[in-house]
Amino acid sequence: MIKVGDKLPSGTLMEFHDVESEGCSIGPNPVDVAKATAGKTIALFALPGAFTPTCSAKHVPGYVQHIEDFKAAGVDEIWCVSVNDAFVMGAWAREQQSMGKVRMLGDGSADFTKATGLTLDLTSRGMGLRSNRYSMLVKDGVVKTLNVEAPGKFEVSDAATMLAQAKSA
Predict the structure, then answer these.
(1) Which end of the chain is more exposed for a tag (fewer CB within 10 A), N or C?
(2) What is the pLDDT of residues 32-55, one digit of tens each?
(3) Catalytic sites, residue numbers
(4) C-beta of residue 79 within 8 angstroms of C-beta of residue 67
(5) Around Cβ 146, how many Cβ atoms within 10 Å?
(6) C-alpha angle 84/88/92, rounded to 5°?
(7) pTM of the full predicted structure?
(8) 20 found inside a domain
(9) Number of structural domains, the chain?
(10) pLDDT tens string 84-108
(11) What CA–CA distance (Å, rounded) separates 111 from 31?
């Protein structure tokens, strides 16, 4: 399992864009993790799935609500990673009104999640291999803090915990 002091695993996540911008076409766009984190401070949180109850009602909204506080604490970007495809993450971003606030990144084949060692097997619940719920503060691609939730819990990966860590980093 990834730990504080480790570099994020290399790989590609996918992000859906509704609007074309410089370097980003409409539709799914690849995000090279190493390039996208270089020289930046990222508040990254991951969760089991888009549109799931805790993720939709608590996890994402907390980060969206505190975007300005994160920026004031020196965070360049907030990333939400889930084992879903870019189309699902794009639809969820619209529903959560997170566009321009939280980057909703799909890890469709769970390659990034497997590389972190933070997988959650929900096969018995019909969801297959997913991501554990966690958050981490990443500076220039290196993990500075890591908060991994116990199964079924939502206590340490929330926006308030990550914001406090970003302020003290």
Answers:
(1) N
(2) 999 999 999 999 999 998 998 888
(3) 55
(4) no
(5) 22
(6) 115
(7) 0.94
(8) yes
(9) 1
(10) 999 999 999 999 999 999 999 999 9
(11) 13
